[in-house]
Design goal:
Layout lengths: L21 H6 L2 H7 L13 H14 L14 H31 L4 H20 L2 H9 L1 H10 L7 H9 L7 H9 L1 H18 L4 E4 L2 E4 L2 H7 L5 H17 L1 H21 L5 H7 L5 H13 L1 H15 L22 H11 L5 H11 L4 E2 L11 E3 L8 E3 L6 H20 L11 H21 L4 H37 L6 H15 L30 H18 L3 H12 L6 H8 L7 H23 L3
Parallel strand pairs: 3-5
Antiparallel strand pairs: 1-2, 4-5
Helix pairs in contact: 2-17, 3-4, 4-5, 5-9, 6-9, 10-13, 13-21, 13-22, 15-21, 17-19, 17-20, 19-20, 20-21, 20-23, 21-22, 21-23, 21-26, 23-26, 24-25
């Protein structure tokens, strides 16, 4: 995701639809990749020191008062509008770089107070900038469509601002008076505090328990939980779940109050801007039809028999008399071994051959650079992300590489984001960003291509069982799990909109009901203990309103593209890269439709469910054959 959240040469046909060749294997061998692997990012490419960052922050703070002089000038002439928008854009570009450094420095170790303070300074400056330019939307709306379009026609330099101006005009009915816009902008910093509090609490302050696993004492924090929840021993999985989730349960009230503050802030903003609902507010900026969200939830529920089929298959393969929630992450077969980061990079390069030689070469070159922080360490921000906001430098990535297949898949996923940013940066800065609605397509497409490669190149029956099960689990977690999150988020926001009390206990009840329905608890598919209803408190993405559903829509789109790319459909590949190169030069929903699919219709989601059923057919046939 581009934290908000590529000049591609003509697609080459060499290797696009061919199997992984010996020559390619040599080019991307682990021995070669080991020389490419860099596990710590180099933030000095942003600023050579903290002191240099502070100098730039002060310089930017001195520039902000100058923006006030632009108020009331944008409608004077086409040239005046261009000068004003360029000045604003230039400052936004520098602030993005400043915020990137501060945020990533803080994420390296959330326990370092100085770094957290620097992030707060960056956030404060960003909010001051937002307040300083809060007049722009209202002013453009007042100028009117006819005059603005006339300016664009008369001044070629305004072409790079066309999409932003079009969006402002479209959102005029939700734009307030300049004074009201300034007031909302000044409240932005306060609105961000629930997410900041949650991040510090869960990443730095929760009292993680110590447990003994195979004679070794470990601190069961978020990272070790992820590492051990897939342990082959069901007793250890049960031990891990029973030790980990009571920590969140103990803080259910506090985290509930924190999330309630986030919800109330969103509802306030939606009402202030005259949106019918919180989800309409979230979709409004990019003009995404609400039918996309509703279709996803509807089709995910319609597809639950397929999910339950897979969960029953898991129980059969794992020989579980009664599957529990703690059994959801254990692989159905043992992998051939652990993976080094170098091996993960080699597999990724091999699997992404269908994207073309140019893509693979650029990705291989990027692996040699210090773009990624992948070393697990105490206090590091949990999860993974890509930050592509430093337009003049390169993307940065954060993850913790734990040497398992999930880490390999995460690496392929996050580098899909990074390459998207590389390609979208062929656009002028003003159009180089992209909506999450598209952002998760190239990342999840990379995951699916990797999964297909692992199935096709499995050397033994167990390897193929493992690869198929990993593909199925990817679809389970990225489609059904994210759709479940989306349904929870919708229910939580609707409760807040109705003025119902929002408590941690109440949120856990909502989540538990969904958890049981999605996992077939009442049908005896998977037993869900009431304790696990607190899992909502573990999901940081909920503090980015209506963000997670886009994983599910995007994996459906990714499945569409991955299937065509694997078949060597060069026309599809061209449309795919056209979409990636477009950045934010157009609204995301029309961009995906131009690429060939409509995410407001049921079909993409039904196609993904069919893909899941086909994979299960293949897995069941393989298991029934009994061949080694």
């Amino acid at each position: 995701m581009r934290l908000s959240t590529i000049a591609l040469a003509a697609a080459l046909t060499l290797g696009a639809s061919l199997p992984f060749t010996a020559a390619a294997a040599t080019a991307a061998s682990p021995a070669t990749a080991s020389k490419q692997s860099n596990q710590l990012w180099d933030l000095s490419q942003l600023y050579p020191s903290d002191a240099a960052w502070e100098t730039e922050r002060q310089a930017l703070a001195a520039e902000l008062p100058k923006l006030k002089a632009l108020d009331g000038t944008l409608g004077g002439s086409a040239r005046a509008m261009l000068a004003g928008l360029d000045q604003i854009s230039a400052l936004r570009r520098r602030i993005n770089r400043l915020s990137s450094y501060a945020g990533m420095k803080a994420d390296e170790n959330t326990q370092i107070t100085e770094n957290q303070a620097r992030r707060q300074l960056a956030d404060s400056l960003d909010n001051q900038f937002g307040e300083a330019i809060s007049f722009v939307n209202a002013e453009v709306a007042a100028i009117g469509r006819a005059k603005v379009e006339g300016f664009i026609a008369a001044e070629p330099g305004l072409a790079k601002h066309r999409q932003n101006l079009t969006t402002m005009l479209r959102m005029a009915e939700h734009t307030l008076s300049p004074k009201e816009e300034a007031l909302l902008a000044s409240a932005a910093e306060a609105m961000q505090q629930p997410g900041q509090i949650y991040s510090l609490l869960t990443n730095a302050d929760l009292p993680w328990p110590k447990i003994t696993i195979r004679g070794k004492q470990v601190v069961l924090d978020q990272e070790t939980y992820v590492a051990y929840r897939s342990d082959a021993d069901p007793k250890i999985r049960k031990q891990v779940f029973e030790a980990f989730w009571p920590v969140y349960k103990a803080y259910e009230r506090t985290i509930g109050a924190t999330y309630a503050a986030n919800l109330k802030g969103t509802v306030f903003t939606a009402r202030a801007r005259k949106y019918a609902s919180s989800v309409a507010l979230a979709q409004g900026e990019y003009d995404i039809p609400e039918a996309v969200y509703r279709s996803l939830v509807q089709e995910a529920n319609a597809g639950l028999p397929t999910l339950h089929r897979y969960l029953k298959l898991r129980s059969k393969v794992l020989k579980l008399q009664q599957a529990g929630y703690q059994d959801m992450y254990v692989p159905l077969a043992k992998p051939s071994g652990s993976y080094s980061q170098a091996e993960a990079e080699a597999l990724t390069l091999a699997a992404l051959q269908p994207l073309g030689a140019d893509y693979v070469k650029q990705l291989g070159d990027a692996f040699k650079q210090n773009w990624m922080h992948s070393v697990p360490q105490r206090g590091k921000r949990s999860g993974a992300y890509m930050n592509g906001s430093a337009y003049d430098v390169h993307p940065y990535l954060l993850m913790s590489f734990n040497q398992d297949y999930n880490s390999v898949s995460t690496l392929a996923h996050e580098w899909g984001h990074a390459m998207h940013s590389v390609y979208s940066n062929s656009q002028p800065y003003e159009n180089s960003g992209y909506a999450t609605f598209i952002a998760e397509i190239p990342s999840t497409a990379n995951e699916l291509l990797l999964a297909d490669y692992m199935v096709a190149h499995a050397k033994t029956r167990d390897e193929k069982v493992f690869a198929l099960s990993q593909q199925l689990d990817n679809l389970r977690t990225t489609f059904f799990r994210q759709a479940m999150f989306a349904e929870f988020e919708l229910a939580a926001h609707e409760a807040a909109e109705k003025g119902e009390p929002i408590t941690g206990e109440g949120l856990s009840k909502i989540y538990l009901t969904l958890l049981k329905r999605y996992h077939g608890h009442d049908q005896g598919v998977v037993k869900i203990d009431d304790l696990f209803g607190v899992e909502w408190a573990y999901i940081p993405h909920f503090y980015r309103d209506f963000y997670v559903y886009q994983y599910a829509t995007c994996v459906s789109a990714a499945a569409f593209f991955a299937e065509g790319l694997a078949k060597g459909d060069l026309a599809l590949r061209e449309r795919y890269f056209t979409m990636l190169k477009a950045g934010s030069s157009a609204d995301p929903y029309p961009l995906t439709r131009a690429a060939g699919l409509d995410l407001a219709s049921p079909e993409p989601y039904r196609a993904l469910v069919r893909r899941m059923n086909r994979a299960m057919d293949q897995l069941e046939a393989l298991l029934a054959s009994g061949k080694p």
